[in-house]
Design a protein that fits this description.
The protein is of the alpha/beta class. It has helices at residues 21-28, 33-51, 99-106, 123-129, and strands at 15-19, 55-61, 74-80, 108-113, 140-144. The protein has one domain. The protein is built from four helices and five strands. It has a five-stranded mixed sheet. The longest helix has 19 residues, at 33-51. The protein is globular, with a radius of gyration of 15 Å. The two termini are 17 Å apart.
Length: 146
């Protein structure tokens, strides 16, 4: 099923949408030079995350998955499997697990979680939080599974 159109606010309708990386790149990866550059960042992030061997899913939210022509960056949540350990991931992938470094080196706002890190909160509830915008409205977010 293709990703839905944007709502009147320029966002995906509220909800979580499963898509392949190629679907996300086709839908959001062209238009302006800025959008193309941010798309290249997402490709690199995805490749580094897959290289860990422990990526469960990558969730994309924010202006990148909206009708914004010039997204500032790409906002990502890496959902890692419970057996993931930062100290055992490839050296090139370490940047993903340091928010400040990821912002500086990859131009991305990256958060990460293992389900067993969440105390008393189911993973699905944690992810639903990211559908909430700063102004209180809800938006759609996109899950990419390797």
């Amino acid at each position: 099923m293709p990703l839905p159109g944007f709502n009147e606010h320029g966002d995906l309708p509220e909800g979580r949408y499963l898509a392949s990386l190629s679907e996300v790149l086709a839908r959001f990866g062209a238009g302006t030079p800025r959008r193309v550059a941010v798309t290249d960042r997402l490709r690199r992030i995805y490749a580094l995350a897959v290289a860990t061997g422990h990526l469960d899913r990558l969730v994309v939210f924010g202006s990148y998955v909206s009708d914004t022509a010039e997204p500032n960056d790409v906002d990502v949540i890496l959902v890692m499997r419970n057996d993931f350990a930062v100290e055992r991931c490839p050296a090139d992938s370490l940047v993903l697990f340091d928010h400040t470094r990821a912002n500086d080196e990859l131009g991305a706002s990256i958060f990460w979680v293992r389900p067993n890190m969440l105390l008393g909160e189911p993973l699905e509830q944690f992810l639903a939080y990211w559908e909430l915008k700063r102004d209180g409205r809800r938006r759609g977010i996109v899950e990419i599974r390797p």
